Each structure stands twice: as structure tokens, then as C-alpha cells.
Amino acid sequence: MKVTRNGIILIGFFIVLIIAFVAYTYPKLKQPEKLPTIADNLGHKIHEFSFVDQEGDTITNETVTGKIYVAEYFFTTCKGICPRMNENMSKVYEAYRGNKDVLFLSHTVDPMKDTVGAMKAYSLRFDADPKQWHFLTGDKQELYNNARYSYLISASDDTAGISIDNDFIHDEHFVLVDRNGRIRGKYYDGTNDEDVAQLIEDIGTLLKEQP
Length: 211
Description:
Layout: H1 5-30, E1 50-52, E2 58-60, H2 61-64, E3 68-74, H3 82-95, E4 102-108, H4 116-123, E5 133-136, H5 140-150, E6 155-157, E7 168-170, E8 173-177, E9 183-189, H6 193-208
Parallel strand pairs: 3-4, 4-5
Antiparallel strand pairs: 1-2, 3-8, 6-7, 8-9
């Protein structure tokens, strides 16, 4: 079949279009999805902290430096949202169980009752590896300040006359923190299956980011 001059020009035109399309889209395909950074305009990062986990070991911000981790607040005697939250946290934990780059920090809002022993007993419900999933207790005010000023969520006792979960107020959200101590993605509702699935996916996204 004889190809006319116009046909050759048309073929060349389509080749140029294909090359331009590939040149435009290829860099975008190579770049992993970038998760939003919470309070990025303020340069916010997690503050220094020091608490004790279910093994009696001291866990500080240095423990999580260079790691991706998920933080939450709860208490062991909670009959409200805590059981559902920690069932869902367990799902996230199982998705990354054994991954040394991913940690979990579950802070109590009731350190008077949530002793090291109580936290140990509670952690056994989830077959939690204490090297990866830390159930933290410590000074009450430091725990509350860490929630408010580091994770930008709520944690307090019933000082305002509001009774939630046996007089303790705590946020239902999971907080995702990257290797550099920045809050990433969004605030994930620990009682919502879709949010929990999104959190599992977003941890995977962070793992692909360059440290």
C-alpha cells in the first residue's frame, strides 16, 4: 500500500503526540503519592516525650526517630469507643506486624488505674509485640499535654462537667506520624472501617517516601 505525503505527515504528528504524552506523564508515574502534612504551615512536629510501656521500658521521642508510627489515646477500663478503636488498631498492627519501620503508641488517659501491669494485661488481648506496639502510661499532665500540643487531639478528665467514657474525654482518632515527627495524611477515625483501611494504605505510602 502506497503511503501519501499527507499520510506520512499525519503519522509523524501522532508520533510526536505520543512522545509528548509519555514525556509529560512518566515523571508523574514515577513519583509516589505525597500525603498531606498536618499544620505544615506552622512547621509543627511532635514534641519531646517520655513515658513507660507495658514492659516497664521508657519510650521517648528518640525511640520513634526515623520510624513511622500510629498514636492513639484510650484507657483499659473504657466501655465506650475504646474496644472498637483497639480492635481496629489491631487490624492496622497486623497489616504491618514485624515491620521494624512501623510502630504503634497507645497512650492512656487514666494512668492512675492504667499501671504497667494493667497495660501489660490489656496488651495481651491483642497479642501485641512489645517491641512494636507500646501501651504507654506515665504522668497524667504530660500525657494530656502530649495529646493536645503534639498530636493536636483531645485528652482530659471530666474537668468541664462533661461525662464521656466514665468521666474521661479522649479523641477517637488515630494519628499517623512520619519518620521526621510530622503528622501526615489526616486524622483517621478509629471507629470507622473506611478510615482504618485508608490508614493501612497511607502507611504503605509513607514507607515508600525517602527518609
